[in-house]
């Protein structure tokens, strides 16, 4: 399909050219389809008028043009009929936040692929969350062996995003969440606790100056997110030894002032997470406490030259959002909002809670005049998931950004067209964490796709929760469903379903393995133990290898190699423990062992709060799944 583009098109032509290969169209000086571009900055939206080969796209900003063009292209690829439509943008800023710090640093080719898709959706911003994954002068250990981005790489990415009118915003940490840098001896002088910087230290503020200068230098945007979330431990390590006790509010308030002096120096517009001040105002210490009422001393003492960003990922109560936004508006300026697509700490997207929470949150944002909206894609505990599984959620946010009310069918149609992956196939992956035993909707964010894979077959940390559940059959059936979707997918989409399909094949044999071993052992059913070795453990040894190979291929296609070693080690541990399980059972069956002590142990609930009647509950992190024993010795916090 060929297009001739005329009119106010100078700012969009290079970006449009970049989209040709991905979306099966071409640009020509003469063609059967002629589109006139009209830029009207007062429009704050888009309008499309098309009839018999001639059309007009009216837009205010580039992201609106690319969204309009994608809507027209989608329409024409289905039928060449007249089209008249218009949309008003509900927010000034909308876009994802990519977590580039929890082991996964995406290749530039992957980020550019996302930029193209986001442009066609209508997004106009991307936050890059980089704790220590960028270069800082005179700090060789900052991001050492972590896949950090060079200034040249970040500048190249910014240049590419600019072709589509997408603003790249660096999101860093200037207080806590810096464990991966502070773990090095070379960083000791900056260190308060394992993850928090030492406040009231000129060395710290010299470092922060260099960090802020380095991370903003490659970008056009004057906005920077300075983090400062989840800093409960601040002032409780070396700071306490040096200065004695001080209130966290006083420390954070003074620190924020110092950091904003640096951002002012570089003429930057700062944003920060709001949770610590909400926690300090809450009687329970919970930033999600609906009854929180910000006291006047917090409102009066905090600087004005920062925008607070309210984050909330799992609340499905509209009134909660409405109240918390109202609290933050008392600072006299409009906060930003960050929702989430749950792709972290699991192999699967949790679309049920993500969409349920986001629907309420985004409606509250519209009703309260919130202008800046982001959707986070965190990567907690290794990022075993594939970030592309979030694409349906990214489309959902785009539709909210251009509509007062969102139509589910339209979201699916748009997502399928723009991503090249069937939206229902993306939603199907939600079932990886929805086996029997999980509470309806999985509002507790449990992650059986992860803990059933990594938990030890002899120790069975989660086995008490899954007794009596036919998980093997569930994952066998889900594997077939995913395989059907994979076969139906275009070549581009097939690749994204390989790991989920192979994971289901593994869980078909492993999910209930520990429960079955324990039952057969307790009853001294030696023939059953032998059968479990032959029909479950032996196939698992090869199936896990196939899963690991597919996962490695996926990771190294999308991401830099740094961080894969963490997942590789997990697979190695799983394979070794399966071999040990096989060896110990065989020796017991042959009479070489009098007992298998691990199987003698009583199985307890991982958490009494999450007994089977209330669902499997939150699944925690790898080091808690793989063993109840010591993975690493926790030293004092500093």
From TrEMBL:
The keyword Hydrolase applies. SUPFAM superfamilies: (Trans)glycosidases. Residues 424-612 form the Glycoside Hydrolase 20C C-terminal domain. Residues 135-314 form the Glycoside hydrolase family 20 catalytic domain. Keywords: Hydrolase. Pfam families: Glyco_H_20C_C (PF18088), Glyco_hydro_20 (PF00728). PANTHER family: BCDNA.GH04120 (PTHR21040:SF8). Belongs to the glycosyl hydrolase 20 family. This is N-acetyl-beta-D-glucosaminidase. It comes from Oceanobacillus kimchii.
